[in-house]
Amino acid sequence: MDAPQEGHVDAESCNEVDDDKSNSDCQSMPAYMNSVLRRQFLQEMVKSLPESVQKRIIVLKNMQLDQLQIEAKFFEEVYNLEKKYQLSYQPLLDKRREIITGKLEPAEEKPKWKEPEALPIEGDASDAFRESLKSIKAMPQDVAGIPDFWLTVFRNTGMLSEMVQTHDEPAIRHLTDITIKYDDEHSYTLAFHFDKNEFFSNTVLTKQYFLKSTVDLEDPFAFEGPEIYKCKGCVINWEKKMNLTVKTIRKKQKHKERGAVRTIVKQVPTDSFFNFFNPPEVSEDKEDIDDESQQILATDFEIGHFLRARIIPKAVLYFTGDIVDDEDDEDEEEFENEDDEYDDDENEGQTKSSKKQSPNDCPNQ
């Protein structure tokens, strides 16, 4: 084959690089440092720029701050739209409650969507499915409403299932609806409606979340939209000896001198879904909040947003499995794919790995 003409580069050789250059130190690349080092590096980089360039960057950051102020107004309008359209959704959500509780028997309808083809169930999963579905199949045909609707939604949603303890289930079976009300003070209230039950006298348990959508002047560039900054629960009027948030323990004590033994009975807090309605008190100064409370509140805020944005509007899809928590499945597929890629590299003798890189990996290794 004739050699390529001078000045002409064969298309297949355009990706060739000098090995010495490709093995440069990862530490010089900000994208492959940890976040703290990356921030420090970039800040020092900016300080090292010519003064004229630094002045232009100041102007750009001032413009960014002006843009964030406009974005805050955008999110304020979004909140008002959510508040407006919630009123339009409500008749449908009210009808949903009536059907679930058996107060309304809807006229039969044909699906308005195309049902996806069911995948075959094989092996051990098939046996486990049959065992788990025995009680469902034994349900009488004339049963009213949709039994255990909300309990099923909770149990089939990872975030909520972690909250629900076994001893909570009898109480949650009495849950008939979860509603949302947008308040005038830039907050929203989740209301959990219950049938009369033996656990508490409340018919409604509430949790209010307060939002802020303003740019914090102390840390303006951290603004990413509305955030929950505090929440308020409610008092549960427990029936005698039915409080699910405490457990009774008995401990024997022996008198040091007389040797007499006595049994001390006391109640101590225990895990329960109903702790959700008793969040930690929030101090105005974030530095006064201990780490445990901060973690509880962070999870609490996440759950409040999840209930508002996903569960309340789409509960039936979580009940039917049209929406499932698939993060674990994605992780497994990712690891399986990476294993396959390693196998391919070994078998074919390739020198370049296609393994997905972590931020701390050198891209040229």
UniProtKB/TrEMBL annotation:
Q: At the top level of its lineage, which domain of life is listed?
A: Eukaryota
Q: Where is this region: Disordered?
A: 1-28, 325-365
The annotated regions of Polar residues compositional bias extend over 350-365
Q: Which InterPro entries match?
A: NAP-like_sf (IPR037231), NAP_family (IPR002164)
UniProt feature, compositional bias: Acidic residues = 325-348
Return the Basic and acidic residues bias intervals.
Answer: 1-11
Q: Which SUPFAM superfamilies match?
A: NAP-like (SSF143113)
Q: Name one Pfam family in it.
A: NAP
Q: Report the PANTHER family cross-referenced here.
A: TESTIS-SPECIFIC Y-ENCODED PROTEIN
Q: Which family does it belong to?
A: Belongs to the nucleosome assembly protein (NAP) family.
Q: What is this protein called?
A: Nucleosome assembly protein 1-like 1
